Amino acid sequence: HERGIQRVRARGGQVHVVLLTSGDGYPEGVEVAEGVAHPTAGDFRGYGVRREQETRDALQILGLGPADVTFLGFPDEGLCRIASTYLFDKKRAFASPYTNRESPPPTEQVIRGVKYRGVDVRRELERIVEQFAPTLLAIPHPEDGHPDHCSTHIFMREALSASPPAVVRPIHVVHYLVH
Q: I need a labelling partner for 125 at 20 to 30 A (CA). Which of 7, 17, 104, 168 fits?
């Protein structure tokens, strides 16, 4: 990602980074970072805040500021379940076993009132694509072995297939593998 971001910026392009989760559903990480043997929902939430700050710090090194990143606050280790069970369910919301949340924090909602439902993940991504109007999207490869990453691909594919009317330029999609 680093070289791609630098290349786009060097050519005068704008970069906007969107993270569906804050990485708050990692028990081993929370235990080490927070120094607790049995993390609580508050510990997981605090860990998510910490990981978001680490992301901002790393992006700042690449020349991106706070306005260049959007955290959507969906559940870490929950996107696959949402994609498989809650993609079209407009009533029930997934509950994170880590943070005990059923919705993103209000400060991370692009559309107010969204919950941990597939339709809401898709709507949030649609809105971001509509507002930013990218010409290039870098998204996880559909065969990435991490459940949140391959699910991100599914949600982005769903959002793009909705074709928001405000998006008039074609969007070139590239894939990357992490796992």
A: 7
5-14: which pairs have CB atoms within 8 A and are 24 or more residues apart? 5/62, 5/63, 5/64, 6/62, 6/63, 8/136, 9/62, 9/63, 14/68, 14/132
The burial class, CB within 10 Å (0-12 / 13-18 / 19+), for 53 is exposed
How many CA atoms within 13 Å lie on the side-chain side of 128?
Answer: 25
From start to end of 9-118, where are the E strands?
17-21, 69-74
Q: Which residues, at least 6 apart from 92, have a Cβ–Cβ distance to it below 8 Å?
A: 86, 117
C-alpha span between 95 and 120 (Å, rounded):
14
Closest residue by Cα to residue 148 from 70, 96, 93: 96
Instruction: Identify whether the C-beta of residue 105 lies closer than 8 Å to the C-beta of residue 113.
Output: no
C-beta of residue 54 within 8 angstroms of C-beta of residue 29:
no
**pLDDT over threshold 90, residue 85:** no
From the number of C-beta atoms within 10 Å of its C-beta (0-12, 13-18, 19+), residue 3 rates as exposed
